[in-house]
Amino acid sequence: MRPALGLCFAFLLAAGVEAQTGVVLELEDVVDNRVSSADPGGFQVQGGLELRVKVNGSGMDKVTAARVIVREAKDDKGTSLVSKPNVPDFYPREYNNGTLQVAVGQPARNATSVRMKGTIELYVPSRDPGASVKIANALATLDKPLSAKALKAAKLEITPLSREGYAAAAKARKITEKDIEQLRAEGKKQGAPEKEIELAVALAQAFEGMDDDVSDTAVILSGETSDFDRIYRIEVLGEDGEPIHMTSRGTSSRGESSLMTLNPAQPLPANATLQLMLLTDKTRVSVPFDLKVPLP
């Protein structure tokens, strides 16, 4: 992005947010994709506006992760670019040099700027000693909820699964003909074209197949989707107390239930410890923002 635009963005934030909190957003790039045509297959091509930003300021060395929640976005022609608040997952500060992506809808073709309002949320685990929960020998007993006072106090229930337990959970999550009928009915209710409805059905069936692709060494955790939403990260600790590197992580949700899969890069010790980093009220710091973004 041109330096002048980044400076303009930072100055706008400094006039409001920075004076109160020391937190400032710095604009790295703007991708403005305004389209108004359909592709040859008959699907409507949707444009959009994407920002790449960084959160900086005093005390950021204690921030483990951040996210930007856009609650309102309008271009200078009055077009609303957000139908409802988009709440992304917290993104680790060490990933991608701390860069976050913010996406909203397509501005009007003759628009020259967009005004956004929302919240910068920071995850600061050091603000709550109870946010880090370590459970020794957590994988010694499978198919039973993890036992820890902190989890009980937080009303969180997470269960490590055996291969048999996983097979049963995956079977219970299989998409039925009734599920497909409901998906089609919901698409028609929202006025979606037939081709888009069938694409959604195909995608749902494809994602279901991912449940079958689990390695023998994977750590599989089961729980309510709402419980996983209150956990920032789960690590498997080795005998030295350090996190074991995972080649991949994934969470698959079906309504109210979710399965998390962790694939370790090395065999796990029999006495492996699980560390759950919780998203508590104390660990989250919210900073409101109100800014104007010039369009390229």
Q: Can you tell me about this structure?
A:
The N and C termini lie close together (9 Å). Helix 4 packs antiparallel against helix 5 (194-209). With 296 residues, this protein is of the alpha+beta class. The protein has helices spanning 3-21, 149-153, 163-172, 177-189, 194-209, 225-228; strands at residues 23-33, 48-57, 65-75, 91-92, 99-104, 113-123, 132-135, 158-160, 219-224, 231-237, 246-254, 257-264, 273-278, 284-294.
How is this structure best summarized?
The chain is an alpha+beta fold.
Number of domains: 2
End-to-end Cα distance, whole Å, is 9 Å
Mean pLDDT: 84
Q: How would a crystallographer describe the biggest sheet? A: 4 strands, antiparallel
**Fraction of residues in β-strands:** 35-45%
How many DSSP-defined strands?
14
Helical segment count: 6
Q: Which structural category fits the helices and strands?
A: alpha+beta
What is the second-level CATH architecture of the largest domain?
A: Sandwich
By CATH, the topology of the largest domain is Immunoglobulin-like
Q: Radius of gyration, Cα only, in angstroms?
A: 22 Å
H/E series, N to C? HEEEEEEEHEHHHEHEEEEE
Overall helicity: 10-25%
The shape, in one word, is: globular
User: Reading side by side through the largest sheet, how are the strands ordered?
Assistant: 4-3-6-14
Low-confidence stretches: 1-20
